[in-house]
Amino acid sequence: MRTITRSQLALYNGQDKPEIYVAYQGLVYDLSRSRLWKNGRHYEHWAGQDLTEELLIAPHTANVFDKFEPIAYLK
């Protein structure tokens, strides 16, 4: 699996590029096919970021990532 830096991850925000990536616990996930991340936004969360800390206050668990395969490691 490849490695993506935080600067590279920021480009996959659904705005600068059509792909929607987020990181969680050191892994990067492609959420482009998720209807909940339209235009790179999910409620008050934005794509292209590491959401590890934000998930601590989310109304759901990390199981939401079970539907997606990690595509890279976050450097």
Helix content: under 10%
Average pLDDT, rounded to a whole number, is 88
Q: Going by CATH, what is the homologous superfamily?
A: Cytochrome b5-like heme/steroid binding domain
Structural class: mainly beta
Number of H/I helices: 1
Strand proportion: 25-35%
> Mind telling me which CATH architecture this is?
Roll
* Low-confidence runs: none
Q: Could you tell me the number of beta strands? A: 6
Describe it for me?
The structure is a single chain. This protein has 75 residues and is mainly beta. The protein has a single domain, classed as Roll (Flavocytochrome B2, Chain A, domain 1), CATH 3.10.120.10. The chain has one helix and six strands; from the N terminus they run βαβββββ.
Write the layout of secondary structure elements.
Blueprint: E1 2-4, H1 6-10, E2 21-24, E3 27-30, E4 41-42, E5 45-46, E6 70-74
Parallel strand pairs: 1-6
Antiparallel strand pairs: 2-3, 3-6, 4-5
Short description:
With 75 residues, this protein is mainly beta.
Pick out its properties.
mainly beta, single chain, four-stranded mixed β-sheet, 27% strand, 1 helix, two-stranded antiparallel sheet, Flavocytochrome B2, Chain A, domain 1, 7% helix, 75 residues
